[in-house]
Amino acid sequence: MQPANYTTKRPFIPLFIAALCFTLVFSLLPIPFSASASTAIVNPKQMYTYERMEKDLKALAARYPQLINLDSIGKSEYGRELWSLKLGKGPVVIFLNGSHHAREWITTNLLMGMADHYAQAYEKQATWGTFAVRDLLERVTFHIVPMVNPDGVTLQQRGLSAFPKADHAALLRMNGGSTNFKRWKANAKGIDLNRQYPADWATIRNVSSKPSYMNYKGTQPLQAKEAKALAAYAREIMPELAISYHSSGEILFWNFKTPAAHKARDLQLANQFASHTGYRLVTPSSNPSGGGFTDWFITEFGRPALTPELARAVGETNVPLSEWDRIWKQHRDTGWMLALEAIGYWIERQPTTASKSEVRLTADETAYQWPDLKSARSGKVYAGLYTTIREKGDWVELAVKGERKWIAARNLLRGKLEIPAGAVVVVHSETGIYTSPSAALPSKVRFAEQKLAVLEGWDGWYRVKTGKGSAWVKQAEVQYELPTVVEEPGEPEPSDQPAEPGQAEQPEQTDNSETSETDDNQATGTDAHEAAAQPSKKFSPAA
Ligand SMILES: [Zn+2]
C-alpha cells in the first residue's frame, strides 16, 4: 500500500466506524416515532371527514396492493359506504373499529394513522423491540373499520348543510332545536349505535325515550344499518380480539360480565394495553349497563374486547386536534402488542400433529424453541432440504443436524415429485423465472421457447437447469415432458380388415372419457397425453 493512499484514506476509518455505530444503534431501536413525511399517505392532524378517509383508504390500497385490501361491509342509513381496510397476510384476525359515536371522530384519525404506519413498517422491514414487523403481519390480518357512523360524523363536522332539506326539521328536533351539532353522537336517524348490540339490550340504563343526538337505543337491537353491518361482519371474520375506539377520558373498559374462566386472559390484555397508553382500567361493575359493541363481543365470542376512551376528558364535543400528538404517542405501536397476543390465542387452538415428510425450505428462517414468537430463539435454519417432525398452525418443526427446531412454515415447499432422469420442461417468453419460490416477483430474465432439464419438482414448482446454474419456474407456466422412450415393437395393424361400426365406437368412447377427466389440464394448455405424463406425487402435502 502506498503511503500517500494511506494518509488520505485514514480520516475515513473513524468516520466509517462512527457510521457503523450509528447504523447499529438505530437498527436496534424500535420503529422511529414519526412516519417519514415523504411516504405517509394519511395526515391525521386535521378534521378528518368521510370524504378524506375514502380518498386515503383507496390510496393506501393502491400503494400497498400486496398488503392491504379494501372492502365495503355495507352502507349507512344515508348510503355512505362502511369501509373495512384489511391489512396483513395471516390467518389471525384482529378487529379494530372507530367512530361509533359521531363526535368521537378522532378515533378515525387514529385508525387511519395506524394503518399507514403499519404498512410503512412492513415495507421498510422495520422491527418492534426484538420482533420483525413482517413476522407479525404475515401471521395477522387487521380488519379496520375506521368510521362505523359516517352519517353522524358528517353531521357533527358539517352540520345541516350536508343533509337534504326535507330532513332538517327532524335533525333539529333530535338536537333539541340547536343548529350546533358538535355534541352529536348518534347516527343521522337519532339512534345511538353503541346502544344497539344484543347484550342485555332490554335493560340498558339512562336511555332517551325517542330519537336523539345521544342515548336512544332504538326499538330493537341491530335495527340501525351500521350496527347490523358491523355485527354481521364480526360474525363473518371471527376475530381473536376486538378494540372499539371511543373518546374521551383516557380510560379503558375491558369487562362485561366476563366469566371467571376468561378473566385472567382478558385482564392481562387490558393491563398490557394500559401500560402502553397509560390509561386507567375501569373497575368492572356488578350490574353494568349493556348494548355496547364490546359488551356484545365479549358475550357472544367469549373473546377479549377493549373500549379505550381516547384523550383527556373534553365534555360534549369532539376531541380537539391539540390532543393528537399525545394520542399518537400512546397508541401508535399498540397494534404490534395486539398482534402478539392474538397470535398466541390462535396458535393455542391449533392441533399439534406428527408429520414426517421431505420439504424444501426456500428462504432462511429464524429458529424457535416452540411454535411461539415469544419463545427462545436458536439461530437460523438455512434454505435447504429437511424432514418435518411436527406441525402446529403455521409452524413446522424440522430435524436440523440432529436438533429439533420450530420455524414459520411460510417458505416451505411440500409434495416432492419423482422426476426421472432426462425429464424437461418447455419454457417460453411468458414463463416467469424465479431465483427462489419465496421471491414475490419473477426476475427480469426471460427465455425464448426451449427445453430445460428438471432438477427437482414440488407441489407447484420445478427447479430447472439454466446456463448460469438453476432457477425456479411455476408448474402452471410450463409444459412438463418425460424423457423420450423407445417404443417396443408391437403387433402389425390389421389395416387390410375394415372395422365394423360397433368396434369403431369403442376407442371414441375412451377418448371422450379421457378428455372429460382432463378438463382442468386442458384449461392450462396441456393436452390429455401430456397431462397423463405429469409426475406422480411421492409425498402428499400436509392438510
Ligand atoms: Zn363513544
Brief sketch in words of this structure:
The protein is an alpha+beta fold and about 550 residues long. The chain is built from 15 helices and 23 strands. About 30% of the residues lie in helices and about 20% in strands.
Features:
SH3 type barrels; Aminopeptidase; six-stranded antiparallel sheet; 23 strands; alpha+beta; disordered C terminus; binds zinc ion; 15 helices; 543 residues
Structural account:
It is a single chain. The protein is an alpha+beta fold and 543 residues long. The chain has three domains: 30-345, Aminopeptidase; 351-413, SH3 type barrels; 417-483 and 529-543, Roll (SH3 type barrels), CATH 2.30.30.40. It contains 15 helices and 23 strands. The chain has helices spanning 3-9, 12-28, 50-63, 106-123, 133-137, 150-158, 168-174, 225-237, 260-277, 293-301, 324-331, 334-349, 501-517, 519-523, 528-532, and strands at 68-75, 81-88, 92-98, 127-128, 131-132, 140-145, 241-247, 251-253, 280-281, 305-310, 352-354, 358-361, 365-368, 377-381, 384-392, 395-400, 403-408, 412-413, 424-427, 450-458, 461-466, 469-474, 479-481. The longest helix has 18 residues, at 106-123. It is elongated, with a radius of gyration of 30 Å. Mean pLDDT is 87; it is low at 1-16, 20-38 and 493-543.
Strand fraction equals: 15-25%
- CATH class placement of the largest domain: Alpha Beta
> What is the count of DSSP helices, taking H or I runs of 4+ residues?
15
Q: How would a textbook summarize the main sheet?
A: 8 strands, mixed
Query: What is the second-level CATH architecture of the largest domain?
Result: 3-Layer(aba) Sandwich
**Bound ligands, named by name, code or SMILES:** zinc ion
Q: What's the total count of β strands?
A: 23
Any idea of the CATH topology of the largest domain? Aminopeptidase
Low-confidence stretches: 1-16, 20-38, 493-543
The share of residues in helices is 25-40%
Mean pLDDT: 87
Radius of gyration: 30 Å
Strand numbers in spatial order across the main sheet: 1-2-6-3-7-10-8-9
Tell me the name of the CATH homologous superfamily of the largest domain: Zn peptidases
Q: What is the end-to-end distance?
A: 62 Å
Assign the structural class, choosing from mainly alpha, mainly beta, alpha/beta, alpha+beta, or little secondary structure.
alpha+beta
Principal-axes geometry comes out as elongated
Summed up, the domain count is 3
